[in-house]
Amino acid sequence: MNLLLLLDEDFLPDGTARLTGRRAQHAREVLRAEPGEVLRVGHLGGLTGTGEVLENSPGTLHLRVSLTAPPPPRAGVDLLLAIPRPKALKKVLPAAASLGVDRVVLVNAARVEKSYFDSKVLDGEFVRELLLQGLEQARDTRLPEVLVRERFRPLVEDELDTVFGPNALRLLPHPPARQPLRALGADTAERVVLAIGPDGGWVPFEAQLLESHGFHPFSLGPRILRVETAVPVLLGQVALLREDIPRT
Predict the structure, then answer these.
(1) What stretch(es) of the chain map to CATH 2.40.240.20?
(2) What is the pLDDT of residues 172-199, one digit of tens each?
(3) Domain 4-69, what architecture?
(4) pTM of model > 0.85
(5) Is 139 left (phi over 0), alpha (psi -120 to 50) or beta?
(6) Which helix (H) or strand (E) segment is 68 a member of?
(7) What is the mean pLDDT of residues 221-237?
(8) Among 158, 64, 140, CA closest to 101
(9) Rounded distance, CA 74 to CA 59, Å?
């Protein structure tokens, strides 16, 4: 944990913050923070800064907080992701939050097991906890929005502009493609949305439908990657291309 995230309800009337649960336990058992020490903190949805430890007793961490710096800039990237196996999703969501994704849309696909929609991993609180872990790792404070869509075709045909905006560059990593990512203008686009399929990939109908709605196929290279590997690799490549674009 590289950043202690503070929630609105943690703040006391005098401006200090009192944390309990997992965060307080981490400060006590892992950081072993003593009164007077200064920890890195951030207000969820807001600024980052420091927290001076006033008390670190079992179950309670009391901090004097100073928030002065913005969180890291974001790359202007969204993710359209066929729902992976629950174990993989537990890795993908923190990675997406760490890499500054603004929005994740989890969608059904032909090669997605229907039972995945019943997994506890899709529970709102479980998703939030996974995202918070990613923010703590990256010292970020802004939660990605996560949407779930059980029908692929209506999403692609009717919702893309609403969910991702009409001006986003739509990218489709797809093994048959030969064109490299760097040739598609991700470094200059206003926003980028990546459509990543399940293990086994999009079936031909899905890939064709995505292409017919503006997604540009490109090659990841000769290796076939699992979803939990492909997501951070692709997001990292796009973020590197866009790192010089001024963003908030």
Answers:
(1) 4-69
(2) 998 888 888 888 998 889 899 999 999 9
(3) Beta Barrel (2.40)
(4) yes
(5) left
(6) strand 60-69
(7) 89
(8) 140
(9) 34
